[in-house]
Design brief:
With 221 residues, the protein is α/β, with parallel strands linked by helices. Helices cover 41% and strands 19% of the residues. It is built from 8 helices and 8 strands, in the order ααβαβαβαβαβββαβα. β4, α6 and β5 form a beta-alpha-beta unit. The longest helix has 17 residues.
Length: 221
């Protein structure tokens, strides 16, 4: 993701001033903040264990952060409070694909409709490559949360195999028929473009936002 964001950002006229990599592993938040001070915005796709430090560093440096890492839900309250207390800015999301964020809205609206018809039962499936660490994925859990505002979701069927970039399915099944909604990621480029869009959007703002807020503003605008 880092290399992809680097190349796509350059195409859009942005300059990468700092790249945080394994050489920075031993730095605490205050020292990492020094390395980030030249940036207008930071994009983070690392690991869940690094999220707190990276967010703290950005807040100390006065740099807005786009947090694309997943698997840190247990710390969300504390980390978002760090941003709020420090007067920082952060966009986070379970998935930065623009298409997936529109899929979120389609899936939730569909659940709202099917909730009125008791003959249908809902199911949720997700597939990713074998290197994907969190299972279910943050994206699948986000979809489940949206669906459960209207219908009961018994579980998430998870597949980890091969090189699958990411596929999510929401189905509504009855004895008469089945309605299937599916989003398939062809590459990681969609995630990178969404993250860059969020980075452009967050500059000059304060507070904690979900990527859905960015999408909502674009749709309304």
């Amino acid at each position: 993701m880092g290399r992809l964001i680097d190349s796509l950002a350059a195409v859009k006229g942005h300059q990468i001033v700092t790249t945080v990599n394994r050489a920075h592993d031993g730095l605490d938040a205050s020292h990492l903040a020094e390395a980030l001070s030249a940036a207008e915005v930071a994009i983070d796709f690392t690991t869940a264990s690094a999220v707190r430090r990276n967010v703290e560093a950005c807040v100390l440096a006065g740099v807005p952060i786009v947090q694309g890492t997943t698997g840190w839900d247990d710390e969300r309250g504390e980390i978002t409070q760090i941003v709020a207390d420090g007067g920082g800015a952060m966009v986070f999301g379970a998935n930065f694909s623009i298409g997936m964020n529109l899929f979120f809205k389609i899936a939730e609206y569909s659940a709202k409709l099917f909730a009125k018809i008791p003959d249908y039962e809902v199911f949720l499936e997700e597939q990713h490559h074998s290197r994907k660490k969190d299972a279910p994925s943050g994206t699948a859990l986000k979809i489940k949360d949206l669906l459960q505002q209207h219908v009961e979701v018994p579980s998430v069927a998870v597949t980890r195999a091969g090189q699958i970039p990411g596929t999510h399915r929401v189905g509504f099944d009855s004895t008469a028929d089945q309605v299937l909604l599916e989003h398939t990621a062809r590459s990681r480029e969609g995630f990178a473009m969404g993250a860059i869009m969020a980075a452009e959007w967050i500059i000059g703002r304060k507070g904690v936002f979900e990527f859905t807020d960015v999408i909502d503003e674009i749709i309304k605008g």
